[in-house]
Amino acid sequence: MRAGDLKVEREFGEGSVDFRGAADRVSLEEAAGFLLAHCQVIRETETVPLLDCTGRVLAEDVSAGFDNPPFDRSPVDGYAVRSADIAQASQENPAVLQVIGEVDAGGWSDDEVGPGQAMRIMTGAPIPRGADCCVYQEQTDYGEERVQVYKPCGPWKNYCFKGEDIKAGTLVLKEGTALTYVETGILAGLGREKVKVYRRTRVAVFASGDELAEPGTELAPGKIYDNNLYFLAARLRELGVEITALERVPDQPEVMAKRLVSACGQADLIITTGGVSVGKKDIMHEALALCKAQRLFWKIRMKPGMPTIGSVLEGTPVVSLSGNPFGALADCELLVRPMLAKAGHNPALNPGSCTAVMPQGFPKASPSRRFLRGVCENGQVRIPEVKKHASGILSSMSGCNCLVDIPAGTEAVEPGGEVRVILL
Ligand SMILES: Nc1nc2c(c(=O)[nH]1)N[C@H]1C(S)=C(S)[C@@H](COP(=O)(O)OP(=O)(O)OC[C@H]3O[C@@H](n4cnc5c(N)ncnc54)[C@H](O)[C@@H]3O)O[C@H]1N2
Ligand code: MOO
C-alpha cells in the first residue's frame, strides 16, 4: 500500500470494542515475544571503510591472507646473535662478537649472522638469517664494531616468530562479530581497508500530540516541548540505528495513518509515542485501524509504559509507546532494544541485568510490576527521591544507568532489600 492510496475508513472508529474494549494486558515478556516474532533479521550487507566499521556487525568471515607478523622479528633493542656463541658469556668473561651491521624496524638485511658475529637490531626489526636469539643492549657494552655480551641467551629467546600473532589462513573474525575498536585494529593489521557489514537497522519515529512544540520555537499556552522525539532519536543513534523518519504528527488519525504507511517500506521498525491510552485524542488506535495494522497487544502489565500497543503493518512491527517520557524511555529499553538486537545480529544490544542492594528501599506498594530509574554501582542501586518517579518526569533520569525491576504484588522494598536491576 502506498501512502497516497490510503482511504480513510472509520470501520474501527471510536466505540469499537476491537482496540479499546477488552484489554490484552500482556506481560512484558509476552509483549517482547510478540514483537520479536514479527521482527526480521537483516540480511542486506554493505561495504564500509575500515574507520566506519566500529559499532557495526561483520557480515563476512575474515581470514588472514598472510602470516602476521610477516617475518621473524626482535622484541628488544640489542643484538641478533647465535646463542651458541654466548653460551658461556659472563660479566668477567664476556663473549666478544664482530658487529656486521644494523637493522632497524621497517628495514631489512640480507646479511647472514655467522659464528662469532652479531647484528645490531632494534625492536620490531626483522631478525637476519643465522641469528637465533636477540640480546638486550643493556647486557652488552653497546659496541659499534665489536660488542661484548655479558650474559647468555638461549636459542629462540627474545625471538618473535613470523605468524606469532596470526597464521596465514586462520579464521580471525567470524561473521556476526560485533565490531569494536579492537576488531578495527585487528582488521587494520590484516591490511583490510574495507569491511563487509550488515546494513544498519532502519527505524521511523513519530511523536503524536497537539501539545508538542519544537525546541527553539516559542512556547504557546498549553504547549510543552517535545522530549520524546529527541531522546528516542539520540538513543537509537547510540544503538547504531539509521533513522528513516523523525516527525511530530498532529492528533489526527488519518495523518498518522499516512505517515505509518509511508514509513513502512523504508523502516524495519516503526516507533510512535503518545496517543495510546483511552482519551478522545488517543489517536493511535484509530490510526492503526485505518491502515489495517494487525494488533498484537495493547497494555503491558507494568508501570510505566502500561498502555503500549504492539502491532504489525505490512510485515513491519509498530511499537506505540506511551507519551509519558519515562514510560516511552522504559519501553524503548525493554521492548525496542531486543528487537534491535535481533534485527541487527547483535545480542549485545539487549540490556544486561544483575541483582543489587537498595539501601534506600522504596516505600510505595507495587500492585503491578514497576520499573524505577536508578544508579547502579558496586552492587548497590540508588534511586531519586520518591516524588521524582512519575512517568511524566524525565529530568530525574539524568545520570541514571539502570531500571530497578520491582515484581507485581510487592508491598514496599525495605531499605537494604535486594532487587533485580536492568542495566541500560
Ligand atoms: N482514564 C485514563 N487515563 C489514563 C490512563 C488510563 O488507564 N485511564 N492511563 C494513563 C497512563 S498510565 C499513561 S502512560 C498515559 C498514556 O498516555 P498516552 O500514551 O495516550 O499519551 P498522551 O496522552 O499523548 O501523553 C501522555 C503525557 O505525556 C506527554 N507527552 C506526550 N508526548 C510527549 C512528547 N513527545 N514529549 C514530552 N511529553 C509528551 C503528554 O503531554 C501527556 O502529559 O495515559 C494516562 N491516562
Ligand atoms: O504506564 Mo504510564 O507510563 O505509568 O504512566
TrEMBL record:
GO terms for biological process: Mo-molybdopterin cofactor biosynthetic process. Its cofactor is Mg(2+). It catalyses: adenylyl-molybdopterin + molybdate = Mo-molybdopterin + AMP + H(+). Residues 204-342 form the MoaB/Mog domain. GO terms for molecular function: metal ion binding; molybdopterin molybdotransferase activity. InterPro entries: MoaB/Mog-like_dom_sf, MoaB/Mog_dom, MoeA-like, MoeA_C_domain_IV, MoeA_C_domain_IV_sf, MoeA_linker/N, MoeA_linker/N_sf. Pathway: Cofactor biosynthesis; molybdopterin biosynthesis. Its EC number is 2.10.1.1. GO terms for cellular component: cytosol. Keywords: Magnesium, Metal-binding, Molybdenum, Molybdenum cofactor biosynthesis, Transferase. It is an enzyme of class 2 (transferase). Transmembrane segments: none annotated. Belongs to the MoeA family. Catalyzes the insertion of molybdate into adenylated molybdopterin with the concomitant release of AMP. PANTHER family: GEPHYRIN, MOLYBDOPTERIN BIOSYNTHESIS PROTEIN. This is Molybdopterin molybdenumtransferase. It comes from Enterocloster lavalensis. The lineage of its organism: Bacteria, Bacillati, Bacillota, Clostridia, Lachnospirales.
